[in-house]
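Onboarding guide, step 5: your first structure request.
Type a short instruction followed by the sequence, for example:

Predict the 3D structure of this protein.
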Amino acid sequence: MPDRYGALERSARTTMISWERVADLKADFGEDGFAEVVAVFLEEFDAAVAELGAAKDGEALARALHFLKGGALNLGFTDVGALCGDGEKHVRAGTAGDGLVDRIAELYALSRAEFLSGIERTRA
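The system replies with C-alpha coordinates like these:
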Protein backbone atom coordinates (compact mmCIF):
# COMPACT_ATOMS: atom_id res chain seq x y z
CA MET A 1 0.00 0.00 0.00
CA PRO A 2 1.55 3.35 -0.97
CA ASP A 3 2.16 5.90 1.75
CA ARG A 4 1.73 9.66 1.28
CA TYR A 5 4.93 9.87 -0.76
CA GLY A 6 4.34 6.85 -2.99
CA ALA A 7 6.85 4.48 -1.37
CA LEU A 8 5.76 0.92 -0.80
CA GLU A 9 5.19 -0.29 2.72
CA ARG A 10 7.91 -2.67 3.87
CA SER A 11 5.48 -5.58 4.30
CA ALA A 12 4.66 -5.48 0.59
CA ARG A 13 8.32 -5.82 -0.46
CA THR A 14 10.71 -8.71 -0.30
CA THR A 15 13.74 -6.42 -0.22
CA MET A 16 14.56 -2.72 -0.02
CA ILE A 17 17.91 -3.23 -1.74
CA SER A 18 18.68 -3.92 -5.40
CA TRP A 19 21.13 -6.77 -4.93
CA GLU A 20 21.67 -6.78 -8.70
CA ARG A 21 22.99 -3.21 -8.43
CA VAL A 22 25.20 -4.23 -5.50
CA ALA A 23 26.61 -7.14 -7.55
CA ASP A 24 27.30 -4.76 -10.46
CA LEU A 25 29.20 -2.39 -8.15
CA LYS A 26 31.23 -5.25 -6.70
CA ALA A 27 32.11 -6.41 -10.21
CA ASP A 28 33.06 -2.86 -11.27
CA PHE A 29 35.11 -1.92 -8.19
CA GLY A 30 36.31 -5.28 -6.86
CA GLU A 31 35.83 -6.31 -3.25
CA ASP A 32 38.24 -3.74 -1.76
CA GLY A 33 37.00 -0.87 -3.91
CA PHE A 34 33.41 -1.78 -3.14
CA ALA A 35 34.14 -1.77 0.59
CA GLU A 36 35.57 1.75 0.24
CA VAL A 37 32.53 2.94 -1.75
CA VAL A 38 30.23 1.52 0.93
CA ALA A 39 32.18 3.17 3.76
CA VAL A 40 32.07 6.59 2.07
CA PHE A 41 28.39 6.21 1.16
CA LEU A 42 27.32 5.24 4.67
CA GLU A 43 29.32 8.05 6.27
CA GLU A 44 27.96 10.72 3.91
CA PHE A 45 24.42 9.34 3.87
CA ASP A 46 24.22 9.01 7.67
CA ALA A 47 25.23 12.68 8.00
CA ALA A 48 22.90 13.87 5.24
CA VAL A 49 19.88 12.06 6.69
CA ALA A 50 20.66 13.43 10.15
CA GLU A 51 20.78 16.97 8.73
CA LEU A 52 17.53 16.81 6.73
CA GLY A 53 15.51 18.35 9.53
CA ALA A 54 17.82 21.36 9.61
CA ALA A 55 16.99 22.43 6.04
CA LYS A 56 16.23 26.15 6.22
CA ASP A 57 13.56 26.19 3.51
CA GLY A 58 11.80 24.05 0.94
CA GLU A 59 14.44 24.58 -1.74
CA ALA A 60 17.23 23.45 0.62
CA LEU A 61 15.18 20.37 1.56
CA ALA A 62 14.46 19.59 -2.10
CA ARG A 63 18.19 19.82 -2.94
CA ALA A 64 19.07 17.55 -0.01
CA LEU A 65 16.45 15.03 -1.08
CA HIS A 66 17.76 15.12 -4.65
CA PHE A 67 21.29 14.39 -3.38
CA LEU A 68 20.01 11.54 -1.21
CA LYS A 69 17.94 10.09 -4.06
CA GLY A 70 20.98 9.90 -6.33
CA GLY A 71 23.23 8.37 -3.70
CA ALA A 72 20.62 5.84 -2.64
CA LEU A 73 19.90 4.67 -6.18
CA ASN A 74 23.61 4.47 -7.03
CA LEU A 75 24.23 2.00 -4.20
CA GLY A 76 21.01 0.03 -4.66
CA PHE A 77 18.87 1.50 -1.87
CA THR A 78 15.83 1.48 -4.15
CA ASP A 79 13.09 2.22 -1.62
CA VAL A 80 15.03 5.07 -0.03
CA GLY A 81 15.77 6.50 -3.48
CA ALA A 82 12.10 6.28 -4.45
CA LEU A 83 10.94 7.93 -1.22
CA CYS A 84 13.49 10.74 -1.56
CA GLY A 85 12.43 11.30 -5.18
CA ASP A 86 8.75 11.38 -4.26
CA GLY A 87 9.50 13.64 -1.30
CA GLU A 88 11.49 16.00 -3.52
CA LYS A 89 8.52 16.30 -5.89
CA HIS A 90 6.14 16.99 -2.99
CA VAL A 91 8.47 19.59 -1.46
CA ARG A 92 8.84 21.41 -4.79
CA ALA A 93 5.05 21.31 -5.28
CA GLY A 94 4.43 22.57 -1.76
CA THR A 95 2.48 19.44 -0.83
CA ALA A 96 4.94 17.77 1.55
CA GLY A 97 3.40 17.15 4.93
CA ASP A 98 4.82 16.54 8.35
CA GLY A 99 6.62 13.28 8.78
CA LEU A 100 8.62 13.15 5.53
CA VAL A 101 12.01 13.53 7.20
CA ASP A 102 11.13 10.98 9.89
CA ARG A 103 9.87 8.52 7.27
CA ILE A 104 13.09 8.84 5.28
CA ALA A 105 15.21 8.35 8.40
CA GLU A 106 13.16 5.29 9.38
CA LEU A 107 13.30 3.73 5.92
CA TYR A 108 17.01 4.44 5.62
CA ALA A 109 17.69 2.77 8.98
CA LEU A 110 15.78 -0.34 7.89
CA SER A 111 17.47 -0.37 4.48
CA ARG A 112 20.91 0.16 6.00
CA ALA A 113 20.39 -2.79 8.35
CA GLU A 114 19.18 -5.00 5.50
CA PHE A 115 22.11 -3.93 3.33
CA LEU A 116 24.76 -4.59 5.98
CA SER A 117 23.19 -7.93 6.87
CA GLY A 118 23.09 -8.93 3.19
CA ILE A 119 26.70 -7.88 2.65
CA GLU A 120 27.76 -10.01 5.63
CA ARG A 121 25.87 -13.02 4.25
CA THR A 122 27.64 -12.71 0.89
CA ARG A 123 31.05 -12.66 2.61
CA ALA A 124 30.34 -15.85 4.56
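Each response can be followed by summary notes, for example: Helices lie at 19-51, 58-75, 78-93, 100-123.
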